[in-house]
Amino acid sequence: MQSSESNKTSFKNVSLRGARIAGKLVMDGISIQGTLDADSLQVGSHLFMRSDERFNATFDKVNLNSAKIAADLEIIGVTFSGDLDARAADIGAHLLMYSDESNTTIFKGVLLTSARVAGNVNVSGATITGALTADSLQVGADLLMQSTERNKAKFGAVSLVGAKIAGSFVVDGANFEGDINGDSLQVGAHLLMRSDQQNRVNLKGVNLTSATIAGTVGMDGANFEGYLNGDSLQVGSHLLMRSDEKNKAHFEGVNFVNARIAGVFNLSGAVFDGDFDASSLRVGANLVMQSTERNTSTFKQVYLAGAKVAGNVMMDDARFSGPVIADSFQVGADLLMRKAHFDEVHLNGARVTGNIALDDTATDGGIEADSLDVGASFFMRRTQSAQPIGLSFAHIGGNLDLSGAILAQLDLSGASITGDLGLGGSKDPVIWRTKDAKSGDLVLRNTRVTTLMDAENAWPQKGYLHLDGFSISRIGGFESGAGPEMRSGGMNWWDQWARRDPDYDLPLRNSSRRS
Predict the structure, then answer these.
(1) Lower CB density within 10 Å: C or N end of the chain?
(2) Would you call 396 helix, strand, or coil by DSSP?
């Protein structure tokens, strides 16, 4: 049925319904202005519907519903003015629908619901102006929908609900005018939605609820204009949502509630214009949210309540304009929040096996971390907080270092510090100051500290220190400028120190044990 060398073959309507062809069927370069009805067609070899160097193949509506093609189905460089319906089709090799160097493949709508393709489905560089509906599609190799050097892939809405792809699903550099619905999608290798040096991937909403990706999910440099829903997503390797040198990763609202990431979850340098909800997230390695040399990580509200990260959590140099809600958060190594800027932080009941570092960090709304459990040390060197920091009943397995911090209030009621409570030396003492330049508070009611490292000018003004039940085992240590005043001070010094507590009633409170 193909065109000859000099003449293009044209038809109005063609019916091949139920036909059986033992060999291959070739429709290269032809034009069908009406409907090609090939419902239940059986082809023993290849089915070719391609444009060639001489003639551009054009079709209106094509019905391949329940067709069986033993080898390849090739629809390359073709223009469709109507829908391609290949629901429940069975392709024994590859389904090739890509654009070639000379001709762009253009579809209106494509229906692949419940189709089975033993090899690749390749739609690279094609344009689908309508919807690609492929619910319950089964692909034995890769699903390729990426842009190429010559052709930008363009799609409307895409539905892959319950689809199974044995290989990778790739949409690198493609442009989507509609949402991608991958609810319960299964991918045996990688899901790649990345921008590259030539083409930026632009997406609306993406639904990956309960999807399973055996390999890596790559979204580096992606631009999302809609909601990314990864509720209960399972990733067998890494989840990468980073900015790169050329492309800033941009996201609106993101949902990774109950998601499971076996490897690294990396958001370095990404921008989030909506909420980032990862409550009850599980990460098998590091959670990386830090800025890079070229790109600043920016977030609005972040939810990590009940999440568990086996490795480090890295937020260095990031910017958070909304609250970070991380109550009952569990971190298997260090929580690094250095040189960052926060609105407010909630870590009530959180557990961090290693260190917490907030060095050179500022918070506008304070930190609420009652019953926090830190396995090693908590560093707040040069931290600035215009609002209270609450560490009531916290346990710190190492040191709490406040050297050079500027704090409005620190509440350590009922807390225990196994190592040193460091208030800085004479050159870098804590400054207790509120936003309106009044004295800040230090609350040490029933606080237990092994070693107190201080300087005389590291304490709040009289009336702003609360010592009822405060106990320490020893004074000072080996740091220069830390503790000499208290170690050498006489009874009068101790009395003046204790009188900073507005409830002081004895020269030296019996509730304070010092040696």
Answers:
(1) C
(2) strand
DSSP letter string, 442-492: EE-TT-EEEEEE--GGGSPPTTSEE-TT-EEEEE--SSTTSSHHHHH--HH
- Which letter does DSSP use for residue 439 in this model? B
Which range (81-85, 165-169, 291-295, 476-480) has the least confidence? Answer: 476-480
For the whole prediction, is pTM greater than 0.70?
yes
Tens digits of residue pLDDT in 150-165: 999 999 999 999 999 9
Single-letter residue type at 81? S
**Which residue in 114, 120, 215 sits closest to 162, CA to CA?**
114
CB 67 within 8 A of CB 42: yes
Residue 261, both tokens: 């990431």
Residue 220 CA to residue 223 CA, distance in Å, equals 9
Nearest one of 190, 163, 160, 162 to 178, comparing CA atoms? 160
Q: List the domain boundaries for the chain.
A: 1-179, 190-295+307-316, 334-515
Distance CA 252, CA 26 (A): 46
Model pLDDT for residues 337-381, shown as the tens digit of each residue: 999 999 999 999 999 999 999 999 999 999 999 999 999 999 999
Three-state DSSP string of 292-344? CCCCCCEECCEECCCCEECCCEECCCCEECCCEECCCCEECCCEECCCCEECC
Q: Residue 454's closest CA among 486, 431, 412?
A: 486
